[in-house]
Amino acid sequence: MVILDPERCAYCGGCVSVCPTEALTLAETRLQVDDLACSECGNCVVACPMGALSVERRLPGGRRAESARQPAGPSKRRYDVIVVGAGPGGAMAAWQAAQQGLSVLLLEKRQEIGSPVRCAEGVAAELLASLVEPNPRWITAEITRAEITALNGAGTSPSHPLQWRAEGGKGYILERRVFDRALAERAVAAGAEICVKAAVTGVLLEEGQMRGVRVRPQGQPVAGEIELEAGVVIATDGIEAQVGRWAGLDLQLPLADTMVCAQYLLAGIEIDPACTAYTIGYDVAPGGYAWVFPKGEGRANVGLGVQADLAGGRAPLDYLHRFIEGRRSLSQGSPVTLIAGNVPVAPSPARMVMAGLMLVGDAARQVDPLTGGGILNAMQAGRLAGQVAAQAVAAGDVSAAFLGRYQEEWQRTLGRKLQRNYRLRERFDPTQRTDERFLHAFALAAG
Predict the structure, then answer these.
(1) What is the pLDDT of residue 68?
(2) 230 contacts: CB under 8 Å, gap ≥ 6
(3) Four-point Cα dihedral 67, 73, 76, 82, nearest 10
(4) Cα(276)–Cα(406) distance, rounded to whole angstroms?
């Protein structure tokens, strides 16, 4: 019988091509094995580049033989800083800490940094430039205008569109697959080590202090898990925030503070290539909004987010289909990519820090509650966390009090703005967010 290790599998499909009995099927990101059809010829085992397949052998007494595997993963077992998650916030933290001469390990559970994309990819150009030098290879469009359209409750035409032109600034639409990888490569150039397809499966705690993480590197089986120690762990593991949860922090999201999103990359459409468009209306996206972000050459990210507790039993993808079908300029396009995910629009948790641990990005709810934007917020937070981690390691003090400098500085600066925007969002009933005061606040946050 062929045994599949799904953690190790890279879903390349090579095994399917050499199977003489059609016992293997690749279903998107799942390899399925039909035990009844399998002839146990072993072709798939030889063709697998990851060592994810093996033919089960039985020893005397019915015991199963374990196949030997070469150890893989990080080069050592202790680092000054371990960063969990290689998104923009994690890569920024790793780069900043490595710049200070620390030994840094950046762990990414997926096999490819930057994929899958779960983002509309829009950023403010001036703020991005303060964090990293813009590069045309990961910028797909330059934005100079934005348009907000507000629809009345059950209507289908604009009630009072608000339009404006950016003055003295511009925005970019990124190619996140390229952008995220470029940030990770910059961290490596500064001295950080990266391990991809390395799933963090638990944390090492001792008397209330984070001491490190348990990792299954490069898809090793459970028996291949290793323990990695660190002076400081920086958790940038997304909306799941598993590292913080395992450490005992209260990070559960209320449904009312969760935006459930779906987005297509549409090709073959005719839109203004320098204008982002937002549509707010309860009938379009309850509690959220729809967006059209151009990506050049007749392409655009077209998506929407719905407040989870207001979806009314309909999937956001259904809302998105209706939004596209109701607009001729969009309905003529063809979807070439579908992405989906959730965005936290909650205030930052009371504790973003504990001894040996800091949270960054979506894991720390560092998303603008009005717009759902979080790329640059995560990058700013990652830079700050990397700086504080370097100070803590140099001082030999990774206590919650010392690392608390990160949370204090965050709350004093950008965190204060996000708290204000959360209060603004809470002030307006979801059915009344076409109010001009709300639109003005939204426009300021989106611009």
Answers:
(1) 43
(2) 78, 79, 80, 81, 82, 105, 210, 211, 212, 213, 356
(3) -140
(4) 33
pLDDT < 50 positions in the chain: 58-59, 63-71, 153-159, 164-168
Determine phi and psi for 42, rounding to 5 degrees: 90, 0
Q: Which two tokens stand for residue 255?
A: 């449904």
Handedness of CA 333, 337, 338, 344 (dihedral sign): negative
Residues 6+ apart with CB under 8 A from 276: 122, 143, 145, 146, 147, 171, 173, 291, 292, 293, 294, 446
Contact criterion met (CB below 8 Å) for 166 and 274: no
Count Cβ atoms below 10 Å from residue 167 Cβ, excluding itself.
7
Backbone angles phi, psi at 104, to 5 degrees: -130, 135
Secondary structure (3-state) at 444 = helix
Q: State how beta strands 53-55 and 30-33 pair.
A: unpaired
Edge to edge, the sheet with strand 334-344 lists 162-165, 145-150, 275-280, 289-296, 299-307, 258-267, 334-344
The one-letter code for the residue type at 305 is: G
Q: Where are the domains of the chain?
A: 2-55, 78-116+177-253+346-412, 142-166+255-344
Which homologous superfamily does the CATH classification assign to the domain defined by 78-116+177-253+346-412? FAD/NAD(P)-binding domain (3.50.50.60)
Helix (H, G, I), strand (E, B) or coil at 271: coil
pTM of the model: 0.88
pLDDT attached to residue 57: 56
Contact present, 29 and 11 (Cβ < 8 Å): yes
Is the domain spanning 142-166+255-344 CATH 3.30.9.10? The answer is yes
Question: Which residue in this structure is represented by tokens 């998506």?
Answer: 303
pLDDT of residue 191: 98
| Predicted pLDDT at 61 | 55
Cα gap 157→159, rounded to integer Å: 6
Closest of 318, 344, 183, 178 to residue 256, by C-alpha: 344
Whether domain 2-55 has CATH 3.30.70.20? yes
Question: Which position has the token pair 């339009």?
Answer: 163
Task: Encode 193-217: b = buried (16+ Cβ within 10 Å), e = exposed.
Answer: bbbbbbbbeebbbeeeebbbbebbb
